[in-house]
Amino acid sequence: MARAAVLGATGYLGGELLRLLAGHPELEVTHAVSKSQAGRPVADVLPNLAGQYEGLVFEADGSDVDADVAFLAQPAGEAMQVVPGLLERGIRAIDLGPDYRLPDPAQYARVYKHPHADPDHLAEAVYGLPEFCRSRVPGARLISNPGCYPTAANLAIKPLIDAGIVVRASGIVCDAKSGVSGAGRKPSLKTSFCEVTENFSAYSILDHRHVPEVLRVSRIEESEFSFTAQLLPLDRGILETIYFRATGIGSAEDLLAVYRKAYADEPFLRLYPAKQVPDLRAVTRTNFCDIGVHYDAKTGRAVVISAIDNLVKGAAGQAIQNMNLSLRFAETAGLL
Amino acid sequence: MARAAVLGATGYLGGELLRLLAGHPELEVTHAVSKSQAGRPVADVLPNLAGQYEGLVFEADGSDVDADVAFLAQPAGEAMQVVPGLLERGIRAIDLGPDYRLPDPAQYARVYKHPHADPDHLAEAVYGLPEFCRSRVPGARLISNPGCYPTAANLAIKPLIDAGIVVRASGIVCDAKSGVSGAGRKPSLKTSFCEVTENFSAYSILDHRHVPEVLRVSRIEESEFSFTAQLLPLDRGILETIYFRATGIGSAEDLLAVYRKAYADEPFLRLYPAKQVPDLRAVTRTNFCDIGVHYDAKTGRAVVISAIDNLVKGAAGQAIQNMNLSLRFAETAGLL
Amino acid sequence: MARAAVLGATGYLGGELLRLLAGHPELEVTHAVSKSQAGRPVADVLPNLAGQYEGLVFEADGSDVDADVAFLAQPAGEAMQVVPGLLERGIRAIDLGPDYRLPDPAQYARVYKHPHADPDHLAEAVYGLPEFCRSRVPGARLISNPGCYPTAANLAIKPLIDAGIVVRASGIVCDAKSGVSGAGRKPSLKTSFCEVTENFSAYSILDHRHVPEVLRVSRIEESEFSFTAQLLPLDRGILETIYFRATGIGSAEDLLAVYRKAYADEPFLRLYPAKQVPDLRAVTRTNFCDIGVHYDAKTGRAVVISAIDNLVKGAAGQAIQNMNLSLRFAETAGLL
Amino acid sequence: MARAAVLGATGYLGGELLRLLAGHPELEVTHAVSKSQAGRPVADVLPNLAGQYEGLVFEADGSDVDADVAFLAQPAGEAMQVVPGLLERGIRAIDLGPDYRLPDPAQYARVYKHPHADPDHLAEAVYGLPEFCRSRVPGARLISNPGCYPTAANLAIKPLIDAGIVVRASGIVCDAKSGVSGAGRKPSLKTSFCEVTENFSAYSILDHRHVPEVLRVSRIEESEFSFTAQLLPLDRGILETIYFRATGIGSAEDLLAVYRKAYADEPFLRLYPAKQVPDLRAVTRTNFCDIGVHYDAKTGRAVVISAIDNLVKGAAGQAIQNMNLSLRFAETAGLL
Predict the structure, then answer these.
(1) Which of A193, A195, A285, A309 should we substitute to test contact with C (largest number of C Cβ atoms within 10 Å)?
(2) What is the H or E stretch that residue A240 is in?
(3) What single-letter DSSP state applies at residue C246?
(4) Nearest Cα residue to D10 out of D50, D55, D52, D59
(5) What would you measure as the largest C-alpha separation in chain C, in angstroms?
(6) pLDDT tens, B226-262?
(7) What number is the average pLDDT over the span A145-166?
(8) Cβ–Cβ gap D284/A50 under 8 Å
(9) Nearest-CA neighbor of A246 among A312, A283, A294, A282?
């Protein structure tokens, strides 16, 4: 069995990693690091895991863990403090946070409002969206796990751009909705139950930190892309409704064919028959990205819907998928 | 006191009419018609109204009610059966359903899949979105209350079109989300609790029955307008996120100024300072439509958010607003 | 118009006071005090009140407000700091917190873990459950508004004890469930959306701070009363399921008769026919307490259900009811 | 691999069986029977199972399935129509419905309002609560899976009765709360989203069909047991708050010791340290029953909380646990 360390193990991403890794056939979690819960048994803090991590106790300090791979599920700015040490000690690092997603340290500083502490490893980091970079993952020491919104967006948009069927002058609209777990476990008024239940609201309109990941991967310009993030009154799931004008296709079937070709052998992409719509229920607690298409041939208007679980394909599940590729396990191990 | 009849009084729209009319200073409900609950006291069926409608009992038949005004809150196709009789007996009719919203009976038949039973009164019906037709309401015998989605959409879009600031070639996207009460009270699997909670899904993509109301009022073409309806896991409220390219303005303030001018004296429109976002909580159980704007001057991308309560400004509240205008009461009577 | 000050105006209780008082015919809010939001217009912070409190700005300091009555909606321990000053300046005080609910300062200190700062006024405070103390309110300078759980409990239990139909040796069980707004607006992990949604949990089992209010008002012993508080995944409402053995009655009708006699002329008590059950929907956003009864004559087992809105009859509505009595307005003014 | 048939495969219980069995190491589902969805592929109807049941199509008729074991997840009254035929053909039957839970056909007829169609097999059926009947399961041809409420109740109550620590004259109160999935998938107004969200209500007070299962298993009298069922605004989970007077114990630890002894080697019982409370989150999507205890030594009042997932330990999970025992697989196979 390979040995894994999870840093930031009591946040929602860390807890989801532990939940998924409990059933992994090739890997065991040997270190769970949590500053706030150090010294407590895992099952005390995460009772749904009782019986699955006997003897594992949260540790305070992740700087000297010994493992084959480390999952970094910490707030922005923390992974870049520990990655150099991990790499030096020969531990593969998979960062679920944003520290290594943007290759340019100046852009990182603009978006995240603090300087990058480890610019030396930025170029080396592989942006781990396996559907587009599978061959680069196995050799990588450092994998940057994509953001949740960009995962759903790029899986829907990049094949369209690659196929050349988007009328780019008309722009692409991505209206995104996410469950509250995407905001993390730290209490705040915005994520308090009474503020969220029976409510719905937008945030970071035209200005979301995840947008650069979409522009970069799908190779589109900011002027072509309008993105709104919105908070759904539910725990987990992201659904993005994507609008564009299509050219060069004659039917919804043609639109679907673009995806069928792009994702012919993908284990985690599910394409819906034209006019059928994915919903969040179908992807919750799975590593699937479900895609459905609509097209009005008379006017060229197209709508694509992309749905994932933000904690799984949008974070912990994709991180495990990357780990599987990295350690040359079956790509779906622990995920199906 | 004027006398009102409510037909379809035990659906969600009818119940909301009764709730709001209980506090109206100028009008009392003298007839509540419900086939399914005929013979039962109102407070037995709608316990939240206990103490407010002593002695009022649901009636089975609305064809011979005696009142000054009748609110028709029935399923599509039923109002057109009773409107001719009401008008003949001198009773003003306010239809909350779709029967009189489209002026062309052929278009009605295409959209609603059955022929129109009362084409003679279609031309006479006033489309009651008071912000755009206030002067025509007082004299009208028949008022067609707008659909919930078109109310939020037209209040956001028509001022933009009138001001000429939309780059129409790029199209307008309206990504709409609604609470479940918009689907009515009749049980169905799609609106069952376990199917809706922790879920989110789209329906009627590029093909919603309400779209013709938007095209007609805001004077845009179908090819210019992409509309998606989506089901939020909550009871009431509609929020629409509207995307377009703007021309002829230099800032979000300029965009806001378009609305300030259009809605200078409107009692039920609330405009948010630029970059502030309306949410559903702020409009729930009110007759307000809240509008917020975002604009990126560098690229021309604009986003407008429009929020209403689908049962109030989207239905029962707007119907009372129309009734107030029709009977020359204060427009806000019973609504503030 | 009488003038009111609201202290703690941006918590959930304070916000509910403002919402309800906006429609009060005899009283206007002249001061809204909030340390955290001082200087901001009310409608900015509470957008659902936009248009209703033009010109009213939150103030930082409530110590020198000038008004006829002050509503104190602050955390435990704060009201007792300002009450002496208010009374000295001739302002009637209605405290929605726990500071003046227990007459013995030593008991207060045991329950709330800090000494009482104003023991001199404890004896003077009237415990404002109007159904049981109506005559004492008008002359009172200081009214202590009951806790939310005890309001629902005492309205259900006291008539039973007074009628002598409870087999006290078997004890009374009160299984109480509350919406999350009862926990206040301060963010915490326990009231975060992702912890509450799709969850249900108990707290303060056999040890809730509100129990002494029930024992005192209903005149029962701690050994006779088992109380559990539980958190419902919803915003507002309290429902209590109360179990006991009855003696001296022969039917559910006899049990109902106990309440009919006790509440013959009460404007805010609604009694359900035997075997019908109140639910939270029926009382939400109202000042009603709904009561329903079940009785098995064969075995003497009885179940009573009591439902209120924790923010209305359990807090702000009852405070207004007390204020109406205190200032000799109609008891239901602003509440029906 | 053993072969299983699932009858009633598109209800919530059937869907949960399919979800859980997809990961079972010893058994494959060879027949999925659903009248309403006959002819459709499983993954079309249950998209969350896409990729897991390739080629499996719903069948209309379960009367001639060929398998080693049949799970019957149908409405009350349907299993008893097919059980005789299954047994005749040598197929073990596990009934998730109520048809074989009560040994007396007259009692069945009284409770379920229709006569029993297969009284001959009632005596043979093993009531499959493995914690209390483990040895009887392996040889059984017909297993009656317990009701969801009785599972949580008996696991909490029977050890107390067996240990003789309940003051029976004071009675036992079981205040039960369930998620909406317990009501099944058939649409009804009571389980419509808008009726359930932000609501909470009781039903079947003192009169629930599941009570006889508790009386029989825990060996208590109806006069000693007060049971209320209540509907939580959430999808899945049952939490029961159980009140009684204890005798012969001195502390909460003593109370806990009763359970520790009863459940020393149970794989699916988790006991919480005294004063810690189980919640629904910890058991959701697991086959665990979590139990927590509270005791006030001064007065003898005791409270026990029991939590399960109604669809797992309360239905499909327990059915698989029984099947594992019946076919002599590891008891936890497919469940941990």
Answers:
(1) A193
(2) strand A238-245
(3) B
(4) D59
(5) 64
(6) 999 999 999 999 999 999 999 999 999 999 999 999 9
(7) 98
(8) no
(9) A294
- Please give the mean pLDDT across all residues of chain D: 96
Distance from CA of B253 to the nearest CA of D (A): 38
Query: By the 8 A CB rule, do A272 and A188 touch?
Result: no
Interchain pair A50, D270: CB under 8 A: yes
- Using CB atoms, pick whichever of C200, C301, C303 lies closest to residue D279: C200
Instruction: Name chain B contacts of C199, Cβ cutoff 8 Å.
Output: none
Contacts of C99 (CB under 8 A, 6+ apart): C76, C77, C78, C79, C80, C83, C108, C116, C118, C144
- Residues D234, B197: C-beta atoms closer than 8 Å: yes
Pick the closest to residue B281 from B307, B320, B255 (CA basis).
Answer: B307
The pair phi, psi for residue C283, each rounded to 5°, is -110, -10
pLDDT at B154 over 90: yes
Residue C43, pLDDT above cutoff 90: no
Provide the shortest C-alpha distance from residue C103 to chain D (in Å).
24
| pLDDT reported for residue B182 | 95
Which residues of B lie inside 8 Å of D (Cβ-Cβ)? 12, 179-181, 185, 187-189, 191-198, 233-235
- Residues from chain B contacting residue A305 (CB–CB below 8 Å): 202, 205
What confidence category does residue C196 fall into, taking pLDDT thresholds of 50, 70 and 90?
Answer: very high
CA distance linking residue B108 with residue B209, whole number of Å: 10
CB pair distance less than 8 Å for A191 and C189: no
pLDDT score recorded for residue D50 = 81
Cα–Cα distance for residue pair B294/B274, rounded to 1 Å: 6
What value of ipTM does the predicted structure carry?
Answer: 0.96
**Chain D: nearest CA to B195, how far in angstroms?**
8
The pLDDT of D301-307, averaged and rounded, is: 98
Domains of chain B (ranges, CATH numbers): 2-124 (3.40.50.720), 149-310 (3.30.360.10)
C148 labelled catalytic: yes
Rounded Cα–Cα distance for residues A234 and A231 (Å): 8
CB contact under 8 A, D48 and A290: no
Q: Are B93 and B326 in contact (CB under 8 A)?
A: no
Residues of A in contact with C197 (CB under 8 A): 180, 193, 197, 233-235
Say how far apart CA D197 and CA B197 lie, in whole Å.
Answer: 9
- Cβ-based contacts of B12 with chain D (< 8 Å): 194
Kindly state the tokens that stand for D3.
Answer: 């072969």
How close does chain B come to A266, measured CA to CA in Å?
24
Helix, strand, coil content of chain A in percent (nearest 5): 35, 25, 45
Q: For B281, which of C48, C50, C198 is closest by C-beta distance?
A: C48
Name the nearest CA neighbour of D123 among D135, D138, D108: D108
- Residue with the two structure tokens 């938007």: B214
In the beta sheet, which residues pair with residue D192? B192
pTM beyond cutoff 0.95: yes
* Residues of chain B with C-beta less than 8 angstroms from the C-beta of D197: 180, 193, 197, 233-235
Which chains have 3+ CB pairs within 8 A of A? Answer: B, C, D
Residue C64 is predicted with a pLDDT of 84
> Can you give the pLDDT at residue A275?
79
Instruction: List pLDDT tens digits, range B193-237.
Output: 999 999 999 999 999 999 999 999 999 999 999 999 999 999 999
For residue A47, the chain D residues in CB contact (below 8 A) are: 270, 278, 281-282, 290
**pLDDT for the residue numbered D43:** 86
C-alpha span between D203 and A265 (Å, rounded): 51
Do residues B4 and B27 lie in contact, with contact meaning Cβ atoms separated by under 8 Å? yes
Q: Which of A89, A92, A147, A87 is nearest to A118 (CA)?
A: A87
Contact A282 D197 (CB under 8 A): no
Helix or strand (DSSP H, E) at B290 = strand B289-296
